[in-house]
Amino acid sequence: MGMTIAEKIIARAAGVDTAKAGEIHVVTLDYMLSNDGTTHLTIDKYNNLKNPHIADPSRLVWVVDHNVPCDSVKTAQSQKKMRDFARERGIDFYEGEGICHQVMVEKYVRPGQLIFGADSHTCTYGCLGAFGTGVGCTDYLYAMVTGKSWVMVPETLRFNLTGTLRKGVTARDVILTIIGKIGANGANYKAMEFAGPGLAGLSVSDRFVLCNLAVEAGAKTGLMPVDEVTLEYLEAHGRKPLACYESDPDAEFAEVYDIDLSEIQPVVAKPHFVDNLALVSEVAGTKIHEAFLGSCSNGRLEDLRLGAEVIKGKKVAEGVRFLVVPASRDIYNQAAKEGILDTFMEAGAIVMNPNCSVCWGSCQGVIGEGEVLISTGTRNFKGRAGDRNSFVYLANAATVTASAVAGEIAEACF
Q1: Alpha-carbon distance 397 to 195, whole Å?
Q2: Which helix (H) or strand (E) holds 393?
Q3: Which of 261, 297, 375, 389 could make an SS bond with 292 (beta carbons 3.0 to 4.6 A apart)?
Q4: Can you give the CATH number for the domain in which 252 is found?
Q5: Structural domain for 391, as ranges
Q6: Would you say the pTM of this structure is higher than 0.90?
Q7: Do the domain assignments include residue 387?
């Protein structure tokens, strides 16, 4: 019996010939990511160890991205602790560079790697053929100290993609549609593998979204085979694969789904669950107070271009705040060169520095009681973006921008 991509990556990291779903393996990690959301907790645990040490500082990447710039004295103290610890121990450290997952994909991730991150959206790295998964502080600390961890090999759900997306339909609509189909718990501790002929028509940015939101279906990770699109991206960013994997023809999948991209329509995830799905047309007219274009899921250049195309020559509706937040410094700079940021600001949008922003409802654009946000963020549970009695709708960049102009949820016209 052949192996899936997930099984192959774990087998390589464990130094064994084969790995099968349900087995537990001790693995050597290629990278360990942490951000300012929880790193201070890891440091506190580290300082309480009897013999504190780091197995290999070159495999650690720490990013300040959740509160940038920091929002309080308490946050400043927490980030200083992280900053000082990283400097003293030679850990790669980024502040103001962008969202951790975007930074990792731009600068570190290579196909075939196994990466732990102290953030649930570490599953993003499958867009480049790597196995990324989120862990808690204790697991992260063990990995940091030993360079190793254990992992149970997940079963794999295979999503065979065919066809091509229509204008105005994005990868976010694809993954939200899939989550609506299988449910928010439909992939619990499974790998979601996206493959098939339709994959060739999706950019790395598109693939980023599919793998990034896999965790919203409960997945352990999201994965994709390495192809020419992957290799071209790596070459442009000065990296080469560690190992290129695809699932064997006789690999065993827990379930196989066929997804025709040409049939996907723009959708919205309604409050307060990511699988509470509706077509945009079904919720059109819902009054909004704020719109957000950004996050690790949809703050890339393609998203900003799409939003700028929708809003060019128009104005943000009176009474609506529209936050536009590029996912990294590189994206911000390129958007500025292309005049995209000018287009948004001329329309009345608020362009912010690269960071997580309102997606996690802590430092920028926090919404109040009864307010409605339409967002390209990752989650929409109660209180995610502010007051627990607020409402978050998730949608693609075009829908979010069109809604900011209309003052209510609206379909984008092309």
Answers
A1: 24
A2: strand 391-394
A3: 375
A4: 3.30.499.10
A5: 267-406
A6: yes
A7: yes
**pLDDT the model gives residue 362:** 76
Cβ(215)–Cβ(117) below 8 Å: no
Cβ atoms of 209 and 298 within 8 Å: the answer is yes
Statement to judge: residues 231 and 374 lie in one domain: no
Q: Report the pLDDT value the prediction gives residue 304, as an integer from 0 to 100.
A: 98
Longest dimension (CA), the chain: 62
Name the E strands within 261-411. Answer: 267-269, 277-279, 290-293, 321-324, 350-351, 372-375, 391-394
Question: Based on C-alpha coordinates, what's the Rg of the chain?
Answer: 20
Residues in the chain predicted with pLDDT less than 70, given as ranges, are: none
Q: How far apart are the first and last CA of the chain?
A: 48
The residue out of 231, 261, 291 marking a domain boundary is 261
For position 25, what pLDDT does the model report?
98
Do residues 382 and 272 lie in contact, with contact meaning Cβ atoms separated by under 8 Å?
yes
**Mean per-residue pLDDT over the chain, rounded:** 96
E strands, 122-217, where? Answer: 131-134, 148-152, 155-162, 190-195
φ, ψ (nearest 5 deg) of residue 93: -135, 135
Binding-site residues: 296, 356, 359
Cα 309 → chain centroid: 23
13 within some domain: yes
Annotated binding site for [4Fe-4S] cluster: 296, 356, 359
Q: How many folded domains does the chain comprise?
A: 2
Do 314 and 237 reside in the same domain of the chain? no
Tell me which of 228, 261, 294 is where a domain ends: 261
Give the C-alpha separation, 142 to 301, whole Å. 36
Within the chain, how many helices (H) and strands (E) appear? Answer: 14, 18
Distance of CA 3 to the CA centre of its chain: 26
User: HEC profile for 220-279?
Assistant: CEEECCCCHHHHHHHHHCCCCCCCCCCCCCCECCCEEEEEEHHHCCCEEECCCCCCCEEE
Look at the block and give the residue holding tokens 């053929």.
129
Q: Which residues pair with 372 in a beta bridge?
A: 391
What is the Cβ-side half-sphere exposure of residue 141, based on CA atoms within 13 angstroms?
17
Alpha carbon distance 61, 222 (integer Å): 21
Q: Whose CA is closest to 311, among 319, 303, 378, 122? A: 303
CA distance 373 to 204: 27
Please, are residues 10 and 199 in contact by the beta-carbon 8 Å criterion? Answer: no
- Size of the chain, expressed as the number of residues it contains: 414
Residue 111, preceding bond cis, omega within 30 degrees? no
